[in-house]
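Q: Could you write out the predicted structure for this multi-component system? I'm mainly interested in how the pieces pack against one another.
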Amino acid sequence: RKEVEQDPGPFNVPEGATVAFNCTYSNSASQSFFWYRQDCRKEPKLLMSVYSSGNEDGRFTAQLNRASQYISLLIRDSKLSDSATYLCVVNLYGGSQGNLIFGKGTKLSVKP
Amino acid sequence: NAGVTQTPKFQVLKTGQSMTLQCAQDMNHEYMSWYRQDPGMGLRLIHYSVGAGITDQGEVPNGYNVSRSTTEDFPLRLLSAAPSQTSVYFCASRETGVWETQYFGPGTRLLVL
């Protein structure tokens, strides 16, 4: 099983649509989870952390299912500006000095 | 604050040449790292450092060296460039254990002919 796995997409959706991305991780002891956003030819930037209880930031909702080793990102009311690649990121092996492991990313294209 | 800076932005090398990719941060972060990003492969960790004088290997360290003589700087050296090292290189820094403080530099695009 790959360490952090995402559907590569691309997801092509119309403006206003709701879209969901999924990610699975291999180590049940993983402690910290994040979604990053990467625009074309730019560096990745933190979008949001993912907490056990689930968390929301405006149109974005992140959820964690530890039993299934699965995290998700839901984007409601998609905007053209949401077009980007979304990276699932996990502190796979725990510890304060552990390294973040990146999924390969899911590409989203929002069309008018 | 400039955040994380990288130089150069672009570089073309011939096979066998050596070069150093520069990375600097002004946030007093202890942890710094280098990633490479290739199409279809995602970001892969090359080397990382948890503080000045301490470095360790990541997932794909072969062909690269690093050093960390100061908190601010973390250069990546290509010893003898190969076409397989054609990639986009990102440097990142964060406070140790505070994952939300991880910031990336703008990247260096390297082409090895």
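A: Regarding packing and overall arrangement: The two ends of chain A are 37 Å apart (CA to CA).
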